[in-house]
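Support reply, case 0932

Customer input (verbatim):
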Amino acid sequence: MKKVLKIIGIILLIVIISIIILLMYIGNKPVAPTDYQQRVETGGEIEAKYMANGSFEVSVYEEPVLQVFKKYVIYYPAELETSDKQYPVIVICNGSGTPISKYPAVPKHYASWGFIVIGTEEENAWNGFGPEMSIRHLQRLNDNEQIEEGKANIFYHKVDFSNVGIVGHSQGGVGVLNAITAQVHKDIYKAAVSLSPTNKELAHALEWDYDASLVNVPIMLISGAGGGDDWVVTGDQLENIYNDIPDNKIMLRRNNTVHNEVLYSPDGYVTAWFMWHLQGDEEAAKAFAGNNAEILINPLYQDQRIAIK
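Our regenerated output:
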C-alpha cells in the first residue's frame, strides 16, 4: 500500500511540475508571433508593403520608473544615436494583462519604419495613464542633454512632437480613446488607431468609460470578424463607436480574425496609417483615401466605413 501511495505521490508531483512549467511557458510566450510579418496574409499591395519590415535597423532602450508599470521601453531607429534629425513617435497602449514585453515584435516593426516607439509594462491601461506618462517621459528625454550624470542622452532634441500617434488593442483601445480625449496631453496626438476597443456597454460595466464623441484627430478603428464575432466588440458595437466620432474616421473589420489576433494581423494598415499621417507618405495614403482606397477592395476585410476630410 505504501508503495502505491508513493507512486501516486510521484505522479501528482510530476503533474504539478508539468502544470507549473506550462503556466511559465504561457506566461512568457509572446502574444504576437515574432515573425508575424511573414505569416499574416495580406490582400493588397499597400498592405503587403507596410506589413513587411521597414529599412531601419532597430535598437531598444529601457528605463526603470517608480510607477505601477515598472519601466519605459523605447524602440527606435539605430541611426538616431548618431543622427541630428528628429523622429516621429508612436505611443503604445497595452491590452488587459499584456505589457509591451509580451509583444516586442510589434513596436520593433513600427520602429523599422522610422518611428520612436514607446510603451510600458502597464497591464490596466483603459484610462490612458501609461501613454500620458510616456509623453511626459519623452519630453524629459528630449529636453535634457544628460539624464544620468556623465552619460549622454541619445534622445536629446531627437523627438518630433509635431508628429505623434497612438495605438492600442482591446482595453488598450479604450486607453487610446481616453488618451486623446481626457488626458493632459490629449492635443499632442496627430493620429490614432484603436484596435478592437472594448464596447461601450462592457466598458461602462467595468468602469472604463470613454466618450468617442470628443475625438478630434484622424482615427482608425479595426476589429475582427468571421468565425465567431470579436467578443470584445461586435460589428454593430464597433459601428456605434464609429458613429459617435464626429469626422476624420475609418472603420474596418478583418475577416476570420479572432480578438487577440487583431493586435498584429492588420499591422500593414496600421503602419500605413501612421506613415501617412506622421511621415506624409502619399503612397500609404492610397490605402485609405479616394474612391479607389485599397481597404475598400481588399477581400480580407469587411464593413469598411470611411469619412475622411
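We compared this against your earlier run and they match. Two observations from our side: The radius of gyration is 21 Å. Residues 1-30 form one domain. Please reopen the case if you see a mismatch on your end.
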